[in-house]
Amino acid sequence: MGRVTSKVQHSAPMVGAMTLRLDGETQVVPIIGDPVAQVKAPALLTARLAARGINAVCVPGHVAAGKVSDFMSGLAVTQNVPGVIFTVPHKQTAMQFCDHMTTRAKYAQSVNVIRKTARGRVGENTDGQGYVRGIRAAGGTVTGKQVLLIGAGGAGAAIAYEVLREGAAHLAVHDIDEARRDSLISRLEAVFPGTLAVGSDDPTGFDVVSHATPMGMCDGDPMPVQIDKLSASQFAACAITKPDRSPFIEAAAAIGCLTMPGLGMFQAQEELLVDALLTLEAD
C-alpha cells in the first residue's frame, strides 16, 4: 500500500482584527473570581495584548473564596504566568499575595492586578481610575461634585480613593457592612480630610450616584438606592458588567440621568490593566 500523506494547514485564530498566537511560548494571564462568568476581560484584554504584539491570552478561572491560596501556590511555579487579575470577591484577599503594593492599592486596601517582577509580586488597583475615566467618557465628571458611593468593598474602596483624588468636593459612603464603611472613611480621611461622610441609600442632593456592589447581577436583587428619589440632573454610574446594563442603570436612564454602565468602567481601564501586566513596579 502506498504511503498516505496529507498537509494540514493551521491558521492562527483572530481576535478582532488581530492575529492571536497560541503556542508553547504563549503567556497566560488568569482572571479569577467567584463567580467569574460575568467578566468581559478574557476577550477584551487578549485583543489588547495582541494589538501590542504580545503573545499572551487572558483566561477566566472560577476560584471559590477560601481556595485562592491554593490557586496562587500553583501559579508560583508556573513560569509563563506574568500576572493575575482579580475580581469579586478576591480583591482584598489578593493583598496577602503581594510583596509590594502601589500607594493607590494601599489606600484602597484592595488589589485587582498583580505582576511578577524581579523584586517580587507587585499589586495595583485600576478600578478607581477606570471608573472616573469611564464617567468622563460618558459626559460626566466627579471633579468639584457631591458624590454618593454605594459599596465599600474592593472595587468601591478603589473608586472612593480615585473620586477624591480627582477632586470631588464631597464623598458620602454607604455600605450595609458598617465596619467596612467606617474603616474606608477613616483611611481616606487621613489623605483627604474634611471630604468624607457616612451616606445612605437616599440619593437626594448628590451630583453623582455611584454603584459599586454586586446588587443587580441576579434577578430579584434590590436596587442600591431609592430610585424614586433620583432626578434627571444626576449622573448614575455602575460597576456591574453583567448584565450589560444593570437594573439601576436602566432605571436611572429612564428618569433622564446620564449614565455609565459597568462596561464603560472596564473599557476605560483595559489599557491600564495591560500596562500593569507589562510594566508595573513598586512605588
Could you describe the 3D structure shown?
The chain is of the alpha/beta class and 283 residues long. Helices cover 31% and strands 20% of the residues. The chain has helices spanning 41-51, 68-76, 103-108, 127-137, 154-165, 178-189, 247-255, 262-279, and strands at residues 14-15, 18-19, 27-33, 56-62, 83-86, 100-101, 113-117, 120-124, 146-150, 170-174, 196-198, 208-211, 235-238, 258-260. Strands 4-3-5-7-8-6 form a six-stranded mixed beta sheet. Strands 11-10-9-12-13-14 form a six-stranded parallel beta sheet, sandwiched between helices. Strands 1-2 form a two-stranded antiparallel sheet. A hairpin with a 2-residue loop joins β7 (113-117) and β8. α1 packs across α8, α4 (127-137) crosses α5 (154-165) and α4 crosses α8. Mean pLDDT is 92; it is low at 1-11.
